[in-house]
Amino acid sequence: MKIALITGINGQDGAYLAELLLEKGYMVHGVKRRSSLINTDRIDHLYQDPHDANVRFKLHYGDMTDSTNLIRIIQETQPDEIYNLAAMSHVKVSFDTPEYTANADGIGTLRLLEAIRILGLEKKTRIYQASTSELYGLVQEVPQSEKTPFYPRSPYAVAKLYAYWITVNYREAYNLYACNGILFNHESPLRGETFVTRKITRAVAAIALGLQQKMYLGNLDARRDWGHAKDYVKAMWLILQQETPEDYVIATGITTPVREFVKMAFAEVGAEIEFTGEGVDEKGFIKSITNSGFSLKVGQEVVLVDPAYFRPTEVELLIGDPTKAKTKLGWEPEYNLPSLCKEMVASDLEIFRKDDKTQWEHLAG
Ligand code: NDP
Ligand code: GDR
């Protein structure tokens, strides 16, 4: 039985990847940091009683800022594959916590690579590093491929730049099977509530159900290449199954402005949105309604711009070129943006219908 260790197992990607690896027959170990409340909602359905003889899913307390802890977990679990998904992953928040972000996202990756060396596991353990399209930052060329130069634009992206290159360096210096997946934005119903797609689908659901009046967003012009996390974790696994370790871009090749995603999400509840005004004065209101089953009114102002959500330096345009992944890995996404958006809005409607809460309006992020 193959053994995998996933850092960040209770995050969006960790949950989908754990599910995939369990389906493939792996023993899955996960690193989870201690929190004052239990925050394993995304993986609760995978829980197995550790007292059972045939347990294939186990969590370990750990933190990317603690080398001794990571060394001990790797020694105890002896993984064939490590997926390093743990990170302070919010770009805007990284401007508030730059030093911590560098430590967890940058040096954290070094700690894992060193642990493999210290334990003499160079020939046994393969490692996947969760690299990101944020590395491209300020546009140098489009679409962005494995050969496009990097120009990071946030403390998060700079930390991930270190992690990218230290992964490449350990591959070249010590012959480690270490790979970067340069993944473009990927979303799902499990996406954190303060990333823009989920923030929008939650707000649309709450507004449609009459629990909230409007939402506040930042830069509506930003364009992202959005895919589904379920498709992207399959690519992570494929990347570690190849004969030679290499880096891959994972993307859909289609880019969409935030404003369009807002329209798409409202269309799921039968509302057509029109935007008027410019910059901080831009507003989105309901132009027409085709589904009268929701609490929506023609003319209702549903989107306002709050500069608090602007970033000191922004990444305006991301569009990836997944040709290498498609040809070498045989990777093909099953979802497109409309099907992703549909699933997210439906899921948020269901959540609100089950659990009527009204305090979401001013979620930060
Ligand atoms: P999430 O924010 O959903 O999950 C991040 C995970 O990392 C959580 O489990 C979190 O734990 C954990 N974590 C954070 N800091 C630490 C730490 N110091 N020690 C241990 N664990 C920690 O991210 P995603 O699942 O969306 O992303 C997975 C990875 O892929 C991240 O590294 C992200 O930067 C990267 N990435 C994501 C993309 C995306 O579009 N989703 C695109 C490209 C890269 P807790 O719940 O306690 O906070
Ligand atoms: P991103 O994702 O920064 O691309 O990082 P996010 O969803 O946070 O932002 C995408 C774009 O939307 C704009 N935006 C807003 N963003 C947020 N969060 N909240 C808002 O109100 C808002 N209004 C507009 C942003 O300015 C940005 O341009 C994600 C993370 O998962 C990273 O960890 C990962 O590496 C990259 O994707 C690829």
TrEMBL record:
Annotated keywords: Lyase, NADP
Reactions listed under catalytic activity: GDP-alpha-D-mannose = GDP-4-dehydro-alpha-D-rhamnose + H2O
EC code: 4.2.1.47
One GO biological process term: 'de novo' GDP-L-fucose biosynthetic process
Top-level taxonomic group: Bacteria
MF GO annotations: GDP-mannose 4,6-dehydratase activity; NADP+ binding
Gene3D superfamilies: NAD(P)-binding Rossmann-like Domain (3.40.50.720), UDP-galactose 4-epimerase, domain 1 (3.90.25.10)
InterPro entries: GDP_Man_deHydtase, NAD(P)-bd_dom, NAD(P)-bd_dom_sf
Residue ranges of every copy of the NAD(P)-binding domain listed in the record: 5-344
Pfam name, any one: GDP_Man_Dehyd
Cofactor(s) needed by this chain: NADP(+)
CDD domains hit by this protein: GDP_MD_SDR_e (cd05260)
NCBIfam families named in the record: gmd
Role played: Catalyzes the conversion of GDP-D-mannose to GDP-4-dehydro-6-deoxy-D-mannose.
HAMAP family reported in the protein's UniProt record: GDP_Man_dehydratase
Protein family (similarity comment): Belongs to the NAD(P)-dependent epimerase/dehydratase family. GDP-mannose 4,6-dehydratase subfamily.
Record's protein name: GDP-mannose 4,6-dehydratase
Lineage of source species: Bacteria, Pseudomonadati, Bacteroidota, Sphingobacteriia, Sphingobacteriales
